[in-house]
Specification:
By secondary structure, the protein is of the alpha/beta class. It has a single domain, classed as 3-Layer(aba) Sandwich (Rossmann fold). The protein is about 35% helix and about 15% strand. It contains twelve helices and nine strands. The protein has a nine-stranded mixed sheet with strand order 1-2-4-3-5-6-7-8-9, sandwiched between helices. A hairpin with a 5-residue loop joins strand 1 and strand 2. The longest helix has 16 residues. GO terms for molecular function: catalytic activity. InterPro entries: AB_hydrolase_1, AB_hydrolase_fold, Carboxylesterase_BioH. This is Pimeloyl-ACP methyl ester carboxylesterase.
Length: about 325
């Protein structure tokens, strides 16, 4: 039984196509808070995961609507954004950096899954663009994989992925939706029907694009390639050099990113705040938007009270490696 009844159809936040300094075009959705004063607060910028889009953040943006301006991007080839020449983690890192450089201040950067992996590199490379970093089930390399991640890894094998996608196209749409729901959510029954319908419509709209399969496989293979990157080029090395306050939200029933990754986060970034959410899958911001909004709101409030030599600098000195926020803790957060 759903915890929240929703009778009105869900509408995506409006947006527009922008051309980045990388030369690639991205669709960016935007919300402006109502009321006086909120417009002057630090913006929140969202980056989605593999196969997702800016509409994955619709419910969370609704919950945080009056907190600050919010921006959600469709990475090239996903959502409403045209495809690019390449669809790799490195290319997407450059795109996100180019987007953040258009703001007149560092932002609160929020990301999920592949977006989390991308934004770890962004925050490590350009801390001057990021005030805080919030990661929802970041797709960092880990060698103990949940069942859905194992299935996804098989698709990264050359030629095999194309065959799997062709075979999947013959499966009835309802069956495909059931499989995807099982991968993404711990318990879809807790999500209002309107929300699930909206998510399914948005994904169907993207998968109907002729480039969808090629973009999906290219991005997936780039994620898998992160497992082979040498030490100083690895995602975990980048994570260990993040200077900004970092929040990591992990779902206890995440079928794509194992919650046991919390241990590695504690080793890589001692001052990260780790939040463990029971009865939660891979996209906590869609499954429990109110709870995730509360966690992010509290995190931003707590970090705003901390001022250090690093956190007050717009441009950081090379080699500056001290964490900026003494937020080291792990907590369990009940879902809404």
């Amino acid at each position: 039984m759903c915890q929240h009844l929703s009778v009105e159809p869900i509408e995506a936040w409006p947006g527009e196509l922008r051309t980045l300094s990388t030369g690639r075009r991205v669709f960016v959705r935007h919300t402006t808070p109502s009321g006086d004063g909120a417009g002057g607060r630090t913006p929140l910028v969202y980056v989605h995961g593999l196969g997702g889009s800016s509409t994955n953040w619709t419910s969370l943006m609704r919950e945080l609507h009056d907190d600050a301006e919010q921006w959600a991007v469709d990475l090239p080839g996903f959502g409403e954004s045209p495809r690019g020449d390449h669809h790799t983690v490195a290319e997407y890192v450059a795109d996100v950096i180019a987007l953040l450089a258009t703001f007149d201040r560092p932002v609160h950067l929020v990301a999920n899954s592949l977006g989390g992996l991308i934004c770890v590199h962004v925050a490590s490379r350009r801390p001057d663009l990021v005030l805080t970093l919030s990661l929802v089930s970041p797709a960092m390399p880990q060698y103990r994989l949940p069942w859905a991640a194992q299935a996804s890894a098989v698709m990264a094998v050359p030629w095999l992925g194309e065959r799997i996608l062709r075979a999947a196209a013959a499966i009835p749409a309802e069956k495909q939706a059931e499989r995807l729901t099982a991968m993404l959510f711990a318990n879809a029954a807790t999500i209002p029907v309107a929300e699930l319908t909206f998510a399914a419509e948005q994904r169907d709209r993207w998968t109907a694009q002729p480039h969808a399969d090629a973009v999906l496989l290219a991005a997936l293979r780039s994620i898998v390639a992160q497992y082979t990157r040498p030490g100083r080029q690895s995602a975990w090395h980048a994570a260990s050099h993040i200077l900004r306050p970092t929040l990591v939200i992990m779902g206890a029933r995440d079928a794509l990113v194992g919650a046991w990754g919390r241990t590695k986060w504690r080793r890589a970034l001692r001052y990260a705040r780790l939040v463990y959410m029971p009865n939660t899958g891979h996209v906590a911001m869609m499954e429990h938007p109110r709870a995730v909004a509360g966690v992010i709101r509290e995190f931003i409030h707590d970090t705003s009270r901390i001022r250090t030599s690093a956190s007050t600098r717009r441009t950081l000195e090379q080699g500056m490696r001290h964490p900026v926020a003494p937020l080291a803790e792990e907590r369990t957060h009940a879902s809404n």
